[in-house]
Amino acid sequence: MGELCKISVGRKNGTAGEFGEYPYVNAGTSMSGFVNEWSEEGDCVTTPSRGQGGMGFVAYQASRFWCGPLCYVMRSKHSDVMIKYVYYYLCSHKADILGLVHEGGTPAINKSELAGLRILVPPFEEQQRIVSILDRFDKLTNDLSSGLPAEIEARHKQYEYYRDRLLSFDELAA
User: Fold this and answer.
1) Taking all residues of the chain, what is their mean pLDDT, rounded to a whole number?
2) Is the dihedral of CA 50, 51, 54, 59 positive or negative?
3) Half-sphere exposure of residue 89, counting CA atoms within 13 Å on the CB side?
């Protein structure tokens, strides 16, 4: 990993809260708030460096954000290594990341051990193909998550309409 990616640690921002333009990403599986300034450009991968509950979680950051001190940021060092490919690879190898966690007090991952993590990298064209397929599945999954409840509601209304129409004997009585 260290040969493929530059790995850095975020820093504290004392103004993180409910309001701000940029997400504040730290340890854990969700944002820790918002801030009005950013420390990192998008197109990178983040994972907690220490903390409870978030170890092994990997996120792709598409746009600018503030990276907190309990979080690693990974950026590709090479133009022939897609960071989004690294993201998908790490998501599918969560056990490898969890294997790096040191317990005792606060769970943590040493940067040097994260840098030593082995990642299989196919040729750039194959990375593009893999990322394209997984992006489509991700979009479909997200569309289903948001669109499925609306579709169920529409089908329920359609069912009620036809049920009421079929069981309405007003036309037959006339």
Assistant:
1) 88
2) negative
3) 18
